[in-house]
Amino acid sequence: MKLTNLSPSSFVFMVGDPLKAWSNGRLKSTNHKVMMSGDKDRFSIAAFIMPNEGTIIKTPKELIDEEHPQLFKDFDFMKFFFFAFSNPARRFDSGQLLYDFAALSPPVSNAHMDK
Fold first, then answer.
1. pLDDT digit string (tens) for 2-58?
2. What is the pLDDT of residues 56-77, one digit of tens each?
3. Which residues cross the membrane (predicted)?
4. N or C end of the chain: which has fewer CB within 10 A?
5. 3-state helix/strand/coil string of 35-90
């Protein structure tokens, strides 16, 4: 994701894997890295929201149909969270974690899933 020519008062909301799973892939989770040029100051605030323990991430039935089959199994958010920071998960690319944890079938290609 590349953002350019933003106003100084811009607000950027980045979707994580749980929202990608909940939306059945309609919302795209993003990898991000800030690149600065010049010598201007930059101020950022990171805010993370986590659901309550025991929250199940489940795609609403309204987002599943013949053209949009369910991509991810229902899962407990905290189990995914702990998986993402586990030793076995270190071998996965961060863009693969959701698929390795909850995909109902392997994606044909990551490239087409996130465009």
1. 667 778 788 777 788 999 999 999 998 877 667 777 787 777 777 788 899 999 999
2. 999 999 999 999 999 999 999 9
3. none
4. C
5. CCCCCCCCCCCCCCCCCCCCCEECCCHHHCCCCCCCCECCEEHHHHHHHHCCCHHH
Q: Are 89 and 97 in contact (CB under 8 A)?
A: yes
- Return d(Cα 74, Cα 56) in angstroms, integer: 7
14 vs 20, 31, 59, CA distance in Å? 11, 9, 19
Which two structure tokens, joined as six digits, stand for 12?
């950027």
What DSSP element (H or E) covers 19?
helix 17-22
Quote the CA–CA distance of 100 and 63 in Å, as a whole number. 21
The two three-digit tokens of residue 8, written as one number: 């100084």
* Claim: this prediction has a pTM higher than 0.90: no
| Gyration radius (Cα) of the chain, Å | 16
Cross-strand bridge partners of residue 76: 56
Residue 34 contacts residue 42 (beta carbons within 8 Å): yes
